[in-house]
Amino acid sequence: MHPSDALFQGKRQPLLLPACDHYAGSSKLMRRSMALQQELGPVFDITFDCEDGAATGCELEHARLVAELINSDGNRHGRIGARVHDVRSPHFSADLEAIVGAAAARLAYLVIPKADSVADVVAAIAAINAQAQAAGQRAAIPVHVLIETHGALHDAWEIAALPQVECLSFGIMDFVSAHYGAVPAAAMRTPGQFTHPLVVRAKLAIAAACHAHGKVPSHNVTTDIRDTAVVANDATRAGGEFGYTRMWSIHPDQIKPIVKAFTPRLSEVSEAAAILNEAVLASWGPIAQHGRVHDRASYRYYWTVLQRARLAGLALPDSANALLAPAVSPTSLPEANSCT
Questions:
Q1: Distance between CA atoms of 102 and 136, rounded to whole angstroms?
Q2: 286, 295 in Cβ contact below 8 A?
Q3: 252 and 281 share a domain?
Q4: Cα(93)–Cα(71) distance, integer angstroms
Q5: pLDDT tens digits, residue range 10-28?
Q6: CA distances from 318 to 16, 265, 304 (A)
Q7: Which of 102, 109, 246, 266 is most buried by a 10 A CB count?
């Protein structure tokens, strides 16, 4: 029995996405990010930005360029999405017509900003689906939602529960600004973003909502684009202390530190493979290894470690690759004992 079948038994498995979501707005930066993705592989996603990337008065032209690039040969891995204008913007419908209407089949996801409630997200999804259906797209386009208003934070649990939503992102700058000075600007950056109670509360609420519904929590940007050590520190804290599994990048130099921070260490990958291979021999019953007891609860954790490592492009030991093989043959995994 394959690990995913044995450990989840038909239940929905937690969604995994590349650890870095790189935002690019201008034509130059969008093309540069595509070239970098071709070089590094699909270890990070790209989000083409219509909300902040389009020059005033050129919103439609920008949306058409986004669709053109998504449809191009440069989108080699199919991991490019787009952030459209918010659902109340006069440019929202035009964005959908230009991007979904022309590139629905190659669009990895759409990001919805500035939602004030779950109702806003539901309305946005309905509009996306209507445009996709008009374009002949049968599969639902995944939706990512920016949580950056008081209302969206209040409804984060319900938003994460929506089937088409696969990721919630924390928009720290808009969230802090929405307090009109009651939260200091220092809370937008390190160390304040990890210590101010209202910001910490927001981050934890978003992460908890995502994990409860098997969705991906994406951490906010690091505004320091010069010091990669700050980026690495923020990513490490976001993952280790706040439960985030993904993080924004706003500069190409931020991509590698983010991916590295969220990638399991090779020692943990080796440990995971050893534990899971022994679990196979025990027919997924409890085992003891190095004086510690493991059962299906810890097996699920270590199975996720292997999947995250593969997603990050880490070179895996043969024992891990055998477990991750999509089709299990008699020689690909150790033979399991019978129940008796």
A1: 10
A2: yes
A3: no
A4: 20
A5: 787 889 999 999 999 999 9
A6: 22, 16, 17
A7: 246
